[in-house]
Amino acid sequence: MNVEEYITQHTTPEDEALGWIVRQTHQRAIHPRMLTGVVQGRLLTMVSVMLAPKRILEIGTFTGYSAFCLAKGLAPEGVLHTIEKDDELEDLIREGIAVGKADGRIVLHIGDALQVIPHLDETFDLVYIDGDKREYIAYYQAVMPTLRQGGFILADNVLWDGKVLEDPLPPDPFTQGIAAFNALVQADPQVENVLLPLRDGLMMVRKL
Ligand SMILES: C[S@@+](CC[C@H](N)C(=O)[O-])C[C@H]1O[C@@H](n2cnc3c(N)ncnc32)[C@H](O)[C@@H]1O
């Protein structure tokens, strides 16, 4: 058994709604690898439960796995807004919301996050960034004004399979995008941050 299997075996497993999303994603989606897994999903739930946010924003719904994980911690009457660009995923996401009885608590927006965010008249307590890796800086700049003081941003895949450590930095726009995002956060006096080496790297940011 490797360390990842051991960690998974000692983490609370997925509930029925998440199990449904995983099965349907493998049957119906093209890139099931994009699913947030059991361990990171449980961490998202734990963070959300600790914060009891009233408003959560997610960029990059895919099939809804992380949206469900985060929504578990919402305060009563709380709402999670999640944005997905790929309209072919809409039916699957909406079915998942119905199966998980999350209507009203999870609000799906189909469209480009960079166009949707300016129209959301909300102040967010927690933001999860998991969209296009080339656009992380643009997401950060779009969400910062909507994040309350003391609010948190979590950004996934910030180690990008270790490529951000390579010297010279690979020229592909994904690695460049993530590396530039990490540097921007690190230099931003408005925040404190910690990069967790969980899975593909999770950046936790708190707005001061
Ligand atoms: C890694 S997947 C998200 C995984 C998801 N958070 C989960 O836990 O299963 C990234 C998703 O972001 C979406 N995406 C990419 N660029 C986007 C954008 N500008 N606005 C909204 N969604 C975007 C992609 O279509 C894809 O479904």
Assign the structural class, choosing from mainly alpha, mainly beta, alpha/beta, alpha+beta, or little secondary structure.
alpha/beta
Distinct ligands, ions and cofactors found in the model: S-adenosylmethionine
- Write the H/E string, N to C: HHHEHEHEHEHEHEE
Mean pLDDT: 97
Enumerate the strands of the largest sheet in spatial order, edge to edge or round the barrel: 3-2-1-4-5-7-6
Please tally the β strands and state the result.
7
Distance between the termini: 42 Å
Biggest β-sheet strands, sense, barrel: 7 strands, mixed
- The unreliable regions are none
**Count of separate DSSP helical elements:** 8
Shape: globular
Percent of residues in beta strands = 15-25%
Q: Please, could you describe this protein's structure?
A:
- By secondary structure, the protein is α/β, with parallel strands linked by helices.
- It is built from eight helices and seven strands; from the N terminus they run αααβαβαβαβαβαββ.
- Strands 3-2-1-4-5-7-6 form a seven-stranded mixed beta sheet, sandwiched between helices.
- Strand 6 and strand 7 (202-207) form a beta hairpin.
- Helix 2 runs antiparallel to helix 5.
- The longest helix has 15 residues, at 173-187.
- The chain is globular and about 45 Å long.
- Bound molecules: S-adenosylmethionine.
- S-adenosylmethionine (SAM) binds at residues 34-36, 59-60, 62-63, 65-66, 83-86, 112-114, 130-132, 135.
- S-adenosylmethionine binds at residues 34-36, 59-60, 62-63, 65-66, 83-86, 112-114, 130-132, 135.
